[in-house]
Predict the 3D structure of the following.
Amino acid sequence: MVTPSQPELAPVAPTTPPAEPSPLGDQRSGRLGERLFTLVCLLSLALPLLLLALLFGQTLADALPRLDWAFLTSFPSSRPEAAGILPALAGSAVLMVLTAAIAIPLGVGAALWLEEYARPSRFTAFVELNISNLAGVPSIIYGLLGLELFVRALSLGRSLLAGAATLALLVLPMVILSSREALRAVPLSVREACFALGADRWQGLRRVVLPMAAPGMLTGIILALARAVGETAPLVTIGAVAYVNFVPSSVLDEFTALPIQIFSWVSRPQLAFRANASAGIVVLLAFMLALNAAAIWLRARLQRRIDW
Amino acid sequence: MYAENTAEPPRAKLRTEGLRAWFGHTEALRGVTLRLPERQVTAIIGPSGCGKSTFIRCLNRMHEVVPGARLEGRVTLDGQDVYAPQINPARLRRRVGMVFQKANPFPTMSIRDNVLAGLKLNRMRIEDPEVIVERALRQAALWDEVKDELDRSGVHLSGGQQQRLCIARCLALEPEVLLMDEPCSALDPIATAKVEELIRDLSERYTVVLVTHNMQQAARVADYTAFFYMGELVEYAPTDELFTHPEDRRTEDYITGRFG
């Protein structure tokens, strides 16, 4: 190749002798086009990053005066400077754990059945189509379902459990789809090796296939949970309350969550509450970042054991 | 059908009678009757798509794992029909081990756990893992190369070492028959030579069935050779005989390189 190792910004001087004719055609114009394209791609990356940075910078600036230990450990109050986020933080954390406890076994189980046990049929095609469609249903619809099913029919009330069950329904399609993807990535040769060693399907799944699929499954699951933590609409629909002045002690307690607390502060007329909302947003972002970091760390750990 | 005048081989470990196999509507085997002699290496040669892999996959009931696969005819191991309803295919596969074309060690497991994988997958009690691991790795001629890194993952090994690890994984289950599906096709000549030498050694204790598209390999390691063509067994004879005096025109054409 004749491409220079360093891209030159200045056009090639006309005095330089033309490069020997290339079978690939005029490479210089190709390079110019390529540079332009690279620039466009770079811009389309830079623009959203810039906007995001501005947004985050503004939020952080608003939030900083309010962000302290007291904010994290106080209960909501009608005086903005005394209000804290403890019940919302605790609510979100418990909500996430409960959602995970419901969605992971159901989602992974469904994926295992669809991918490993079910023989392709009209029924499985129908189920698969519906799972893909469910992943695109607006979250408020899940809220309505949760309200009818969990809050009223199963009379769980406006409890943490009802909220978690609703959020679990919401993220279930994502968990199933990403788990299936991860299972499908395990090569056939490895599954055949299990059979050839005299393993039954379950043993092969448990000892070989699942450990290999785990990192991929985990990534999908944590992304789904991060989405659940940020959801507001379904929780509002099932009636999570904004003003909660206790930390939940049972899964049947009423609750609030970070996005709901933020929403209620934003909708207050006093400016001082806006600063609280900003601080709440920063806490929520930190919460989700921590979740994502945990996902990356776990995946790296699992993958180190695999090392393709 | 093999020619009547070939010398009668020793006791048959495995026999097939009129074995036919399909994938969907495609008939891959068209009635194969063959006896595989005990503690001998039998090579199965033939051009791609002649059914040689399908044939050995019928012997340990791996054929039926593929969706849409079907089979007719009889396969007997020590005279017992392996497709009889009371036979558990998992049990059968412990007695009839299989090594695949592409080495497929379990990537999540250490070398040690790979060797023990068959026992663990079968929920067998492992009395003395160290002894089992060393014996299997020694039999697979891999012990000296990996004895200091048994806790490392097997995927760091070279292709030839990985294939011998897969052989060790089979041997740890103490099978009676070893089916090998082109075990050297992804290996370089030196690694191939090692595996071939290993196959010779293994035939003292195990009945080996070796699928290969490499005729020199068949000539080097096999006691008996069967030539398959278009899903049929064309000729079966002691290796020397088949390569020097082929009975069938198609065999002769194939081994002299006129097609295939």
User: Anything to note?
Assistant: Confidence is low (pLDDT under 50) at residues 1-5 of chain B. The first helix of chain B runs from residue 52 to 59. The domain at 12-106+175-255 of chain B is CATH 3.40.50.300 (Rossmann fold).
